[in-house]
Design a protein that fits this description.
- This protein folds into 2 domains: about 200 residues, Rossmann fold; about 60 residues, rRNA adenine dimethylase, C-terminal domain (Helicase, Ruva Protein, domain 3).
- α3 links the parallel β2 and β3.
- The relative contact order is 0.11.
- With about 290 residues, the protein is an alpha/beta fold.
- The strands form 2 sheets. It has a 7-stranded mixed sheet with strand order 4-3-2-5-6-9-7, with helices on both faces.
- α8 runs antiparallel to α9.
Length: about 290
């Protein structure tokens, strides 16, 4: 179904009529391509048994599609100037709620519990602000297990990093931190030309599917996440040289010998499972 909100003429007119503009401090770029909107909805695989969490609805182009495809939309919009415009643009729908708060500061579990009782599934669908993409994703993954699927548009470079595989240039601490909890898949690329204003970079939409039975489980997750941050702190260095800042060198060498891994190994050569094993090993050494 084509939406009425997500096209360039509508966006231009709405901004002009309401004396609004895209605010850089909120990372606002308004999507104007109906095909991209349709592709996002297709990727989300929504139904009327699904509660959708949306972040940064903007003028409501994606929200309109979400209202049609899902049971209910809970949208977080930080920009109070957009709230009346959003409500007006979505006036024919009654299955949404707009919360004027920063997604980084909300009690997401409490909000979901309030609205979830009538729905079987919870899916997040969002065009994320570039400047806080990583804090949003890692924050939600660590705070809640109620959201089982994420469909998110973000800067292409970040999407490639999240979906990066071992022994590739994109694989890093973010790849591991996200894929420790979910299966990450890149859905499609999005050119910068389909936004108002046009950003300086291209985008991509990725899917995260939370594991029902996680294949990885560190004994101490705080230690695990600290370990991967240190392991990738300087990419050109070996794992040993990155970790000597926080662990004694003889312990690191002993650990690598224990797991039959060469001392010259670099972090990008190692799997998530390797880092879980390292984390558990180092926990017993503390």
């Amino acid at each position: 179904m084509q939406g009425k909100i997500g096209n360039k003429a509508f966006v231009d007119k709405t901004l002009n009529d309401n004396k609004l503009y895209a605010k850089k401090k909120f990372g606002q770029n308004f999507l104007t391509d109906q095909n991209i909107l349709s592709n996002i909805i297709d990727a989300a695989k929504l139904d009327k048994d699904t509660l959708v969490i949306e972040i940064g609805p903007g003028l409501g182009a994606l929200t309109e599609r979400l209202c049609n495809a899902s049971g209910f939309v809970l949208a977080y919009e930080i920009d109070s100037d957009l709230i009346p415009v959003l409500k007006n643009n979505l006036s024919e729908y009654n299955n949404f709620e707009i919360i004027n708060k920063d997604i980084l500061e909300v009690d997401i579990n409490k909000d979901i519990d309030l609205y979830k009782k009538n729905y079987k599934n919870v899916t997040l669908v969002a065009n994320l602000p570039y400047y806080i993409t990583t804090p949003i994703i890692l924050g939600l993954l660590s705070k809640t297990a109620l959201i089982k699927k994420y469909i998110m548009m973000m800067q292409l470079e970040v999407a490639d990093r999240i979906c990066g595989k071992p022994k590739t240039k994109d694989y890093n601490a973010l790849s591991i931190a996200v894929c420790y909890r979910a299966k990450a898949t890149k859905c499609f690329n999005v050119p910068r030309s389909v936004f108002i204003p046009e950003p300086n970079v291209d985008s991509a939409v990725i899917s995260l599917d939370l594991y029902d039975n996680p294949p990885f489980k560190a004994k101490n997750e705080e230690l695990f996440f600290k370990l991967i941050r240190e392991a990738f702190s300087q990419r050109r260095k070996t794992l040993v040289n990155n970790l000597v800042n926080v662990y004694k060198k003889d312990i690191i060498i002993e650990m690598l010998n224990h797991f039959n891994i060469k001392l010259s190994v670099r972090s990008e050569e190692l799997s998530i499972s390797d880092f879980v094993s390292f984390s558990d090993y180092l926990l017993d050494k503390e």
